[in-house]
Design goal:
With 349 residues, the protein is an alpha/beta fold. Helix content is 40%, strand content 12%. It contains 14 helices and ten strands. It has helices spanning 31-43, 59-67, 96-110, 129-141, 155-168, 191-197, 228-232, 234-237, 242-261, 265-275, 289-297, 305-314, 331-334, 343-347, and strands at residues 3-5, 12-14, 16-19, 48-50, 76-81, 115-120, 145-151, 175-177, 201-204, 281-284. It has an eight-stranded parallel β-barrel with strand order 3-4-5-6-7-8-9-10, surrounded by six helices. A two-stranded antiparallel sheet has the order 1-2. Strand 3 (16-19), helix 1 and strand 4 form a beta-alpha-beta unit. The radius of gyration is 20 Å and the shape is globular. It starts with a strand and ends with a helix.
Length: 349
């Protein structure tokens, strides 16, 4: 397993990061099996594990904590905060009030006294980034957190956070965790160049686009919308939607390219992501041991320019085939009221 430096932190991480989202009720509820998968990943050369408080309501962090007993010092451990963790309106977001409380919860669930990388899972329009960075800086200085990062932030908010950190003397985000795959290339236009400009590491999530780039979903077999992620996230899987129909068509062409490259579609998709010079590590999220075994084989696959050029012809650089796969949209797009004057103001001219 190759290693790369995470931004300018000096921390060496494997080119594959073990994502723990599928450990727990969201994926594999068997704790013992999940722990065996984590151990096999570490034995296979992965030294980087990423989870989040919101994954199965903290259960993923608990599983990771148990798995790392006796191995914690050899693992770069990352987790995230932002998502709703209870009925209280203040049990979410990027506020100082919540982060100071939630980091303690994550430390307890992970059975550790420090987190190597603490990330804001999504932007929070209700919280000034100065407030967030101030709180995170205190956590770094207290020794509870080693480095901080963002996840699924647009380029303009990454820049804002860098400038605020510089002007106010805060710790700065040292990495970004965006969605990136052959099907989700929007970050190539702004996010990846911005991260490269500021020397930030990039940890790509969903490099297999939720299973689309394993060949699991084909034109002749369709998509089972009655279970799993397809049921939870129909906007990303429903084949009647134009963006998902485009993914089905692209899969057929990409399978041919992978065959010519001498590898599986899965391995080609992972190699595509790690080939970008701005990417530090790609997150793999196995639910079973067989999935992990197959994913680890792909760590040595590299793609030549001819194959990358052919992929560009199927999905052009900077294009995301299905907008909901982008992970986050600003309120200005999701809330119609943000784009319309009040009726009284419109009536008044």
């Amino acid at each position: 397993m190759r290693t790369r430096t995470l931004g300018g932190t000096g921390i060496k991480v494997s080119s594959y990061c073990l994502g723990a989202m599928m450990f727990g009720q969201w994926g594999n509820p068997d704790h013992d099996e999940s722990i065996r998968i984590i151990h096999a990943a570490l034995d296979g050369g992965i030294n980087f594990v990423d989870t989040a408080d919101v994954y199965s309501a903290g259960e993923s962090e608990e599983i990771v904590g148990k798995a790392l007993t006796g191995r914690r010092d050899n693992v770069v451990l990352a987790t995230k905060a932002h998502g709703q963790m209870g009925d209280d309106a203040n049990m979410s977001g990027n506020s100082r009030r919540w982060l100071v409380r939630e980091v303690e919860n994550s430390l307890r669930r992970l059975q550790t006294d420090y987190i190597d990388l603490y990330q804001m899972h999504r932007p929070d329009p209700d919280t000034d980034v100065d407030e967030t960075l101030s709180a995170l800086s205190d956590l770094v200085r207290s020794g509870k957190v080693r480095a901080i990062g963002s996840s699924t932030f647009p380029a303009e908010q990454i820049v804002e956070a860098q400038w605020v950190a510089d002007r106010r003397g805060h710790e700065r985000f040292r990495c970004e965790q965006p969605p990136y795959s052959i099907f989700v290339r929007g970050i190539e236009a702004g996010v990846l160049p911005t991260c490269q400009k500021y020397g930030m590491g990039v940890i790509a999530w969903s490099p297999l686009s939720g299973g689309w780039l394993t060949g699991r979903y084909r034109r002749d077999s369709g998509v089972d919308m009655s279970s799993g992620r397809a049921r939870r996230l129909p906007q990303r899987f429903d084949p009647s939607r134009p963006g998902n129909a485009a993914k089905l068509a692209a899969v057929e062409e990409l399978i041919k390219i992978a065959a010519d490259a001498g590898c599986s579609l899965t391995h080609m998709a992972l190699a595509f992501v790690t080939a970008h010079p701005g990417v530090t590590s790609a997150i793999i999220g196995p639910r079973t041991m067989d999935q992990l075994t197959d994913l680890l084989v792909g760590a040595t696959v590299t793609l030549d320019d001819e194959i990358l050029d052919r992929i560009d012809q199927i999905v052009p650089p900077g294009v995301t085939l299905n907008a909901p796969d982008g992970g986050w949209q600003p309120p200005a797009l999701t809330d119609p009221a943000a784009r319309r004057r009040p009726l009284a103001a419109r009536a008044a001219g």
